[in-house]
């Protein structure tokens, strides 16, 4: 953060940092191990593309790809619409989807709209995603481009009001999905090329905001549990630098650097908080396991 505070605006905006930069301070042997591990990570991330999702999430029905029915993890919208308690029908669902897609397209830049218009919408499905989205709606939409080997998957995730609004006042964005997209584009050097937002009237008559992005566009993550200290050092530097840059681009980097100071007081506070939070997670998980074992909470395992 101190480094960003001493840089010019354009230098902050255009700054890049890679694994090679982080590993430059390591020994030759450590660099070799880190390079090998990062190479595997990047290779694995490249397999997380639309074709892989196409093979895992769809099947061919009457010559046309359709989402697999795998409740509760993946439920095609056609099944939701025909359910007795859904409050909707297939025709109403199709109209809602078409309206939502038109709304989403208007949030893209002209060249990105041109790209999306080369794809034909096929189907929508409700999809269970990570723990960070528990309690919110998440959909995945399938499109086809030139032929059956040119799929596009868009993930449509519900966006609620920021938790900060209770302290900092209402957001300047009237659509919570717009706020999420604007924040990502501001903080990230390279954001999803199809990031957009929409507002949809649900079957229950409630208006909800969503943001849209690609599903499986070379996203990757590391397995921290298997890291050696050298690899963890590189990973921590990358995460710290990336977080600092996000704050430098979106906030007052000079004020933030001055608040952090030159000592390690803030560093130690973060370490203590992280340990306490990890302990709390362990306790929460133990409580969940106990509730599941006693039957107070219904759970599904092996999904």
Q: What is the total tally of β strands?
A: 8
Oligomer: single chain
Helix percent reads: 40-55%
Main pleated sheet: 6 strands, antiparallel
Summed over residues and divided by their number, the pLDDT gives a mean of: 85
Cα-based radius of gyration, to the nearest Å: 22 Å
Strand portion:
15-25%
The helix/strand order is HHHHHEEEHHHEEEHHEEHHH
Q: How does this model look, in words?
A:
The chain is an alpha+beta fold. It has two domains: 2-45 and 222-262, no CATH class; 49-214, no CATH class. 49% of the residues lie in helices and 16% in strands. The model has no long low-confidence stretch (mean pLDDT 85).
Summarize the structure.
With 303 residues, this protein is α+β, with helices and mostly antiparallel strands.
Secondary structure blueprint with pairings:
Blueprint: H1 2-5, H2 9-14, H3 19-23, H4 28-47, H5 50-57, E1 58-61, E2 64-67, E3 74-76, H6 77-82, H7 90-105, H8 110-117, E4 120-127, E5 138-144, E6 151-159, H9 165-168, H10 176-187, E7 196-201, E8 207-214, H11 229-250, H12 253-260, H13 265-294
Antiparallel strand pairs: 1-2, 3-4, 4-5, 5-6, 6-8, 7-8
Annotation keywords:
alpha+beta, globular, six-stranded antiparallel beta sheet, two-stranded antiparallel sheet, 303 residues
């Amino acid at each position: 953060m101190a480094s960003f505070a001493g840089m010019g605006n354009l230098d902050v905006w255009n700054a890049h940092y890679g694994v090679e930069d982080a590993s430059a301070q390591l020994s030759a042997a450590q660099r070799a191990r880190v390079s090998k591990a990062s190479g595997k990570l990047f290779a694995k991330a490249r397999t997380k593309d639309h074709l892989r999702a196409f093979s895992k999430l769809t099947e061919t029905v009457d010559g046309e790809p359709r989402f697999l029915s795998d409740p509760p993890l993946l439920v095609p919208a056609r099944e939701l619409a025909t359910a007795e308690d859904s409050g909707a029908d297939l025709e109403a669902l199709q109209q809602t989807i078409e309206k939502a897609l038109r709304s989403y397209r208007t949030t893209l830049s002209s060249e990105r709209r041109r790209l999306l218009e080369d794809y034909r919408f096929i189907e929508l499905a409700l999809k269970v995603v990570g723990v960070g989205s528990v309690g919110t709606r998440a959909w995945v939409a399938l499109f086809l481009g030139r032929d059956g080997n040119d799929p596009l998957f868009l993930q449509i995730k519900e966006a609620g009001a920021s938790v900060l609004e209770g302290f900092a006042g209402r957001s300047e964005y009237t659509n919570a999905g717009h706020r999420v997209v604007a924040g990502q584009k501001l903080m990230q050097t390279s954001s999803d090329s199809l990031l957009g937002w929409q507002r949809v009237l649900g079957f229950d008559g409630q208006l909800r905001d969503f943001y849209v992005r690609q599903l499986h566009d070379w996203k990757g993550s590391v397995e921290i549990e298997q890291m050696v200290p050298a690899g963890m050092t590189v990973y921590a530097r990358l995460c710290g630098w990336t977080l600092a840059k996000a704050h430098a681009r979106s906030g007052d980097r000079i004020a933030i650097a001055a608040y952090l100071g030159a000592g390690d007081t803030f560093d130690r506070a973060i370490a203590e908080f992280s340990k306490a939070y990890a302990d709390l997670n362990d306790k929460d998980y133990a409580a969940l396991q106990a509730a599941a074992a006693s039957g107070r909470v219904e759970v599904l395992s092996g999904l």
